[in-house]
Amino acid sequence: MRICNITLVEITEALARECPSAMNAALGIFLAIMVGGGANAGPDGKEVPRVAFLGFEFINTSLEATARVEVERIRLLDDVLRQKLTASSRFEIVDIPPDTIKEIASGPTISNCNGCQRRFAQMVGANWAAWGTVQKVSNLILNINVYMEDAESGKMKFARSVDIRGNTDESWRRGLDYLLRNYLLREP
User: Fold this and answer.
1) Overall average pLDDT of the 155-165 stretch
2) Does pLDDT of 57 surpass 80?
3) Among 44, 60, 68, 165, which one has the highest count of C-beta atoms within 10 angstroms of its own C-beta?
4) Coil, strand, or helix at residue 102?
5) 7-16, 95-104, 114-123, 140-149: which has the minimum mean pLDDT?
6) Would you say 50 and 125 are in contact if contact means Cβ atoms under 8 Å apart?
7) What residue ranges of the chain are covered by domains with CATH 3.40.50.10610?
8) Per-residue 3-state assignment (H helix, E strand, C coil) for 57-95
9) Where are the beta strands (DSSP E) in 139-179?
């Protein structure tokens, strides 16, 4: 790239030759930005939490067997939550590597693991752990819960629940949308 007939390489070499301390400062700022010292700032410039979203869990307390479509709806809610948090620019969703996903799946449920969610969040470099549950009381009565916890202190940063009526894709999606829009992502 040419800037006023001088390449960036020529500028860098001149800066290093004429003013090494300025070059070191510029390099330090560049590295801090690249490593994350500003990479997770929201639109208002404030640092946003790095979130390890560990997924939704289905808790079936009804007398009916869990249907395949309900398992598929859990994946639907996983996708919706990730998309909404990312689109909000208030959170940075941290990728969870496949080996960690296998470890999570092989242990106790996230909602009942005595703090394992914080350990998993720390393993992937996140500040917060997030997870959710859908409890089915019957085909008519269900509730959706979302939790966010500080990975270091264990302090709960967000915990909300909404009741939904009806066991359909639409009711599940609307319930999660309502919870996010009116509680987690509500404008201040």
Assistant:
1) 98
2) yes
3) 60
4) helix
5) 7-16
6) yes
7) 50-184
8) EEEECCCCCCCHHHHHHHHHHHHHHHHHHHHHCCCEECC
9) 141-150, 156-165
Q: Give the pair of three-digit tokens for residue 17.
A: 């030759």
- How far, in Å, are 9, 31, 35, 118, 185 from residue 152 at the CA level? 42, 25, 20, 7, 23
**What pLDDT does 69 receive?**
97
Q: Considering the chain, what percentage of its residues have pLDDT values greater than 70? A: 76
What residue has token string 């959170």? 91
CATH class label, 50-184: alpha beta
Q: Which residue bears the tokens 């859990």?
A: 74
169, 166, 2, 165: which is closest to 69 by C-alpha?
Answer: 169
Comparing CA positions, the residue from 135, 148, 150 lying closest to residue 183 is 148
**48 residue type, one letter:** V
Q: How far apart are CA 19 and CA 13, in angstroms?
A: 10
**109/116 Cα distance (integer angstroms):** 9
Nearest to 156 by CA among 147, 165, 167: 147
pLDDT per position as a tens digit, 17-34: 666 554 444 444 343 333
List, for residues 86-111, the tens digit of each pLDDT value: 999 999 999 999 999 999 999 999 99
Cα–Cα distance measured from residue 3 to residue 185, given in angstroms and rounded to the nearest whole number: 42
